Amino acid sequence: MKRKALSIILALALCIGLTVQALAEGDVSFESMWEVDGVPFSDLTPSGSAEVEGFIGSANAGGPVFNVTAPAHLVITTDLYAHIEKTTLLDNGKFSFNYDNGIEYVDPVGGYKTNDDGYNTTVVGSEFTLEKGAYLVWGDGNQLFYVVVNDSSTVEPSPALVAKPTSSTVLVNGENVAFDAYNISGNNYFKLRDLAYVLNGSAKQFEVSWDGAKNAITLTSGKVYTVVGGEMTGKGAGDKSPTATSSKIYLDGKEVIFTAYNIEGNNYFKLRDIGTAFDFGVTWDGAKNTIVIDTGSNYTTD
């Protein structure tokens, strides 16, 4: 089995943004290509989203998290490069695995198909049986999601996510700006169009467009933002119940995966994800409880 070659291809795709061509065509989400015990993952509500630690130098391979009960039977509904591997769920909510220690894969019943290029691919109807544990499902270029399989006798509902209005001051290029922003699980999420509106005219401006037919958000760096109305309409009041954004996201023509939530019809993105994507500075001043956005500097990790 040529797992090593497949792992290298998929790892490179995730790390440097290459797109591995899937055998299936069409504008469907990666989750919708999988079923668990007869139910498409796209019909399930994620318990939230998560990232992976120790991923070949990358710590932001974000994707939705689904909680299911053991034993879980995952079935692929199309042909594509993909596989499932065991991970460790950390106390901080992130998932962890390390290539240096060897990857533990879950084999599909009947094994993989080897295509003409010599690489393994799953085929329609391939079934994976998952026992209690944490798993990463990935492939089709840079798409992924996480599955936590709980013991059926001890499974408990996942705690509901809560979005609290961000209490921090926000400075943009030295000026105080009142954003409609929320803190979710310790991270600040900003309304995407508000960020585009405020950064318009700067060196880090970007356009936001929506394709309803494809359920897709398109971001274009360096382009003037088109005002649609409703931007910067004030800060939200009270706690909200966020849901993971189901839309596909394209950055300069390439599909990307960001941690994002929908709150009352608007999409809120993790500020640091957007800072990374458009390379503007995002820093935190704990002493002053202040978030600093600087379009004159490049993004750096803390």
What report would you give on this structure?
This protein is mainly beta. It folds into 2 domains: 3-150, no CATH class; 163-294, no CATH class. It contains 3 helices and 28 strands. The strands form 6 sheets. Strands 3, 4, 5, 7, 8, 9, 13 and 14 form an 8-stranded mixed beta sheet that branches. A 6-stranded antiparallel beta sheet has the order 15-18-19-26-25-22. A hairpin with a 2-residue loop joins strand 1 (34-36) and strand 2. The radius of gyration is 20 Å and the shape is globular.
Provide a brief overview of the structure:
By secondary structure, the protein is mainly beta.
Mean pLDDT: 79
In terms of DSSP E residues, the strand content is: 35-45%
Largest sheet, strands/sense/barrel: 8 strands, mixed
Task: Tell the overall outline.
Answer: globular
Q: Total number of β-strand segments?
A: 28
Percent of residues in helices comes to under 10%
Oligomeric status:
single chain
Number of domains: 2
Give the termini separation: 40 Å
Radius of gyration: 20 Å
Residue windows where pLDDT falls under 50 for at least 5 positions = 1-27, 56-60
The tally of helices reads 3
Structural class: mainly beta
